[in-house]
Design a protein that fits this description.
The protein is an alpha/beta fold. Helix content is about 35%, strand content about 25%. Strand 4, helix 3 and strand 5 form a beta-alpha-beta unit. The longest helix is centred in the C-terminal third of the chain and has 17 residues. It starts with a helix and ends with a helix.
Length: about 200
């Protein structure tokens, strides 16, 4: 996975993919007060729930551009709908490498059959409990911090429109996340963490 970030193959596009599931459409029971001199912005801690959506996102590692689709669930059928959208966006003479976690939906029999029919698409799974290796998680953190955390919406459609507007604005001037850690540094830290865990048992 790290090799794809640091030394991507020629004649190929690398996508970092994941779902952000169960994003809640929350409306505050009272409007918050805006930030002003001498006072932080406020918001109520009680809210009304209006449903949820799942954001499917694919980060083009080279450009930083995000492809996205919001769907009600994250079943393998929904995954294939989004995956087909990604494939159609890439010129047919380029290979497609997708970095994703080893969630069961991504390994469903129908997904494997789809991969067999689309040989230019290659999956690269992150190890269990290593979602931090997936760069799209960095985008999800940015989206939560800058858009979702203090958001108040009146419906799921309103939530989806807000997420879409944020991503569209970001895509106007996209910047890639640059991976700086080497494989050797990562393995050294993992070894140190494993050694620490071993002393606790």
């Amino acid at each position: 996975v790290v090799g794809l970030y640091l030394n991507p193959p020629e004649r190929a596009v690398v996508f970092s993919f994941d779902e952000k599931s169960q994003i809640q459409a929350l409306d505050r029971t009272q409007p918050g007060l805006p930030m002003k001199k001498g006072r932080a912005g406020t918001m109520t801690h009680d809210y009304k729930r209006h449903g949820t959506t799942t954001l499917f996102a694919a980060l083009d590692v080279a450009t930083g551009r995000i492809q996205q689709k919001c769907l009600p669930q994250h079943r393998h059928e929904d995954f294939l709908v989004f995956l087909t959208q990604i494939v159609r966006s890439v010129p047919k003479d380029l290979a497609i490498h997708v970095i994703l976690d080893n969630y069961a939906t991504h390994k469903h029999a129908n997904v494997k059959a789809w991969l067999a029919r689309n040989p230019r698409v290659h999956f690269h799974f992150t190890p269990t409990s290593a979602s931090w290796l997936n760069l799209v998680e960095r985008f999800f953190g940015e989206l939560t911090q800058r858009q979702i955390r203090r958001l108040a919406v009146t419906s799921v459609d309103h939530l989806i429109a807000t997420i879409t507007a944020y991503i569209d604005h970001r895509n106007e001037n996209p910047e890639p996340f640059v991976w700086t850690a080497t494989v050797r540094e990562i393995l050294r830290k993992v070894g140190k963490a494993n050694a620490t865990l071993a002393t606790l048992h």
